[in-house]
Each structure stands twice: as structure tokens, then as C-alpha cells.
Batch of 2 targets.
Target 1
Amino acid sequence: MSGRLRVSLILTALVVVLAGLAARGQLPWLPGLTTGTAASDEWTPPRTPWGDPDLQGIYNYGTSTPLQRPPQLGDKAVLSDEEAAKLQDELAYRLNRDRRDGGAQADVSRSYNDAWMDPARMRLTADRRTSLIVDPPNGRLPARVQRTLTPEEEQARAAQDLSTRRFNTGFQESYRDMDVGNRCIIRRRNEGGGHPYLPAIYNNMAQIFQSPGYVVIYSEMIHFSRVIPVDGRPFLPENVETWLGDPRGRWEGNTLVVETRNFVASTEVGRTGVVYGNANPKTYRIIERFTRAAPDRLDYEVTISDPETWTRPFTILVPWNQTDEQIYEYQCQETNYDMYHWLYGAREREKRGERFDPNAPDARGGDGAEG
């Protein structure tokens, strides 16, 4: 066999392999648009043996498409091919955590290097949308409700802000300065891995299981499962609260619709609960819609509302791309030791004469979220 023919056959085989991987969304090492095939007119969504739409599979919902449309884009809802390509190049540079430029502070912030990151976070959605928010039409979160806080609310807000500043500067006072995410109870405010399912820097994986009367969604982030009844049962009484709320599902054609309420309102075990945007757990509601839009993609649409937090409901659309990748156990082992390390370190610093400064440059550098 000639060398030219051998090279030609190798290249042909490589193209075939890459095309097959791309069709399954398995090109994590190639920055680009999120993969996913379009459904043809002849394609019929599958059903389970008992007749429900079949949503089962492992999915990755990572993307770098921002939640909100950048203000400078105005009313531009979709990028052109050229704009998307340029943005991908910028993202590949900006999100690269193996860079060593920027000084010591930037280096510390990249201590979780790219080996820990989800490559899917580097890709825009295939439709080149400028935001994950699809309603309001401007792609932005609605304004928050402005109201006068009660003295008790003012005191609670000030205490939470101070707790966050202590955490960010490494002067934790007690276990209360480490919230539910830091302590591996549940992902705080559902920043990745929880409803709403929003892209994060890693662990953007979920697996759906089904049985008659139930749908179960297992998340890679902090390893929790949502067991969703779809048998028509009523919601639990309002005084029965859980970290992830009380979900109830129903089928509307090929779409699973899930409404969730009854979220835990107490913050006794940490600085915050898990509802999105620090909304009021008593009035916070989410309605999620899961639709198999193509053989290898679910469309995840979630409408969030809380009349005490936002002036109107808003809707987010995130593609879930099916994958053959494995979901790994999220043991969160480091936090079994971090409680001791955080408190011990803070006390040692105080022995050296260091004191907590709530106005230090890094006091508001983040919100103390786990990971």
C-alpha cells in the first residue's frame, strides 16, 4: 500500500470517527458550539413500555452562553456565524484556567485548573443565542421588587452580609459562616446541579430515570436525586418544607412539566437556603419543562417567579445534550476536613494579631459558594 493511500485512508477514518463523536456530543476537547442534532419531520420521540414519553439518558447542560444578554448587545437575540466564532476565541482564552498571567491573585483564583473543568462550558449553544433567558425579550433578569425591609429583615441581611465577608477573608467565626454548599448538604442557591439547572464550571451532568408514576433526575453536583411523582397526587401541606422543594409532574404531550414549591425557609444551618437569587422560599415557584427535541437533545425550559423578589416571572432555556460519558460520584470529601481547617486557620491568624476587616478588598470578592 502506498504512503499516500495509507494517509488518505487514515484521514478518511478520522473524519468518520469525529463525525460520529460530534453527533453524540463527545468532542469536549474542541471548543465550538454545543452539539445536538435537529429533529427531522419523520422523527418520533420514543416512549417507555408503559406509554410515557421516554426522557431517559445522561445529559450535559454545560455552555458558555451567558444567563443574561450583555447590555451592549441591546436587542440582538442571535449572533451571526462570524460573531459566534469570534466570541468562541475570546472564551477559549478568558476561560482557560491553565494561564499563568495576571499575577498572584489571578493565579490563586485559577487553583482549580482546566483538568477539573467541564470542556462543555467553553461552547455556545448551537442556536447562537446571546442569553439563556428567553423571556423577557431583552434577555435580562427582571427588576427586583423594591420595598422597605422590616427591622428584623434588615438585621438578618446585615448578618448574612457580614458572614459572607468573614468567609471570603478567611476569618470564619463559627460553623454558621460555612453555608449548605460549603458543607456538602446541597448546592447553595442551586448554582449548578439543581433546579433551576444552570451551567457551571464543572459537573454539568444529569441522568434521568423513569418508572411508572415517577421520574427521577440525578445530578452529578452534590449527588442528589429529585424524585418527581407524575401520578396526579396533590402537593404536600405548606408547612412541610424540603431543601429541594416538593415537586409534582404531569405530561403535556411529549413534555414533562414539573412544578415545585415548599422550599426550606430556615437558614439555621448556613447563611442561605437554596432557592435561586435569594428569593423568598415561601412565595418562590418554578415550573420546568423537559422536552425531547431531538434524538440526542432535551430542551430544558424553566419559568421562575416570586412576586416578593422580581417584578415579573422570567424564563430560561438550556439545551441538554445527551452523552455517553460517565457520571462520577461527587463525594465532597474535602469538606469533611475543611470545617476544621477553616476555623483553625482563622484562630491561628487571630493569634498572630490579624483582625477581620469587613472592608478588605476581597471581603466582597465572592459569595462563599462551594467550589
Target 2
Amino acid sequence: MRFVVLASGSSGNVSAVWNGTRGLLIDAGTGSSRSIESSLRGAGLRPEGIAGILVTHAHSDHFGRPARIFAKKYGAPVLTHRDTYAAACRRARDFQGMETLGHVRFLTENADHLHDAFQIRTYSVPHGTESAGRPLAFTIRCNGRTVFYATDLGTVPPYLIEAMREADFVLLESNYDEEMEVTSGRPDHLIDWVTGPTGHLSNDQAAEALARVFEPGHGKYPKRVVLGHLSEECNLPELAIAAIRPRLPGHVELHIAPRYEASAVWDV
């Protein structure tokens, strides 16, 4: 399998994972469908090969109009929880009717699903309010390889530690630096939410979670970790790296997902 981040942050999130000529988008909440198509081609994947669009939750930086356009144009259904689709429909009329057209396939939380060539395991995650729907993290398996993907989670439940440990490739949120967040001048209610149990992960929280993933004594560990969804206002790549690099074994690759452009294409 191969993996690429096309955009990551509060301005929009899109990634892709694929095996051969078939792949999945993970979220589609940025820019336009044309920009996603162009980025996919640049990464070596034809848009026609997208078999589905995994959507983590209903916030617009994850579930945007490109998801609807891709579903219609390429017959690639949105794969998400029913509550997440309902929340997206409440937010924007554009999404209404997708279910009738067969452009949505509903996933249940904490369950295994098969779509095209991909085995997908869903995990419930704590994030947001009713507007988010039912947020999910995912593991995606194909051809003996496993990708773990989780952003927008206020805490890391133990079952996500186990899921990351069993993956070959991990993308995990590292949203904010605590000092930058509390001194940002943002409204108190926003700071309280971001730093609360249903908000986002700080660099230190991500570091602690990954330290638990790489505790000695287990039979399998990831080979590569990508930090995603960094706040533009309240984080810096060098701060995230400084917090997390010391908590990882030296042989494990560590990368930052770019905000506005495509990452390298990584082999899983």
C-alpha cells in the first residue's frame, strides 16, 4: 500500500491510501474536487481508482463539497457513520439526498467492514458536539499492510493505543502546543474546548500516546508516524517534533503532514 496527505489542518483535510490502482480518500474537506484530482494524479493515483471516501466526522474541514462531487462523478461512496451524515445534512443542504442516490454507505462504530479491496476497522473517538456526528478513527488493511488514521480526538482511549501498535503506518493528530494555545488570545470557551476531553490532542498528549504505543515487550510496532492537523495559530512543526521525537525509537520515521500541499508518497 501507499499513503499520501494532500492537506491537513483546520483549513481542510484530505489523504489517500491505495494498493495498485484502487484506493480510498480519507476525508474530503478542502479546496475543490479538481484540486484533489490534480493532487492524486501528481501522487500517481488516477481519481477513477478511488473506491470510496472515508469520512471521520461532519465538520466542514473533513466532510466538504468535494466528497459529494467525488461520490457522484466517480461512484465512490462516502463511508461514514449514519449520525455523521445526518449532521452534515443539517449543516448543508448539498448533502441531502446522497443516501437516496446510493452515494453513502454507513459504517458502524467499533466494527469491521469490507469495501472493495480494503478491510476497514472503525473506532469511536471523543471529539466535538452534536455537530460532529459520530466521529471515527480507522485502520485500513490491504495486502498484509495496515494504516491507522486518527485526527480530532480530545483524548486517546486505550483501544486506540492497541490499534496504533498493530499498524505499519500511523497518522495521529498533534494539534496544539499548550503554551501557545493558552496565550493565543482566543476566547476562553474555545480554549477550554480545544484543550478539553472532546477537543484536540496537544503535542504532549500525542507524545504520551505514542510513548505508550512503543512500550517494549510487544511483538509489532509501526515503522512510520505522521503528525497531522497541526494548528496554524497554536503550533509549529518544530515544537511537535521536539515533543514527540524523544518518545519514539530512533529507527521509527517521523514526519509532519503539510497543511496546504501534498506530502511525499509513503510506502506502507
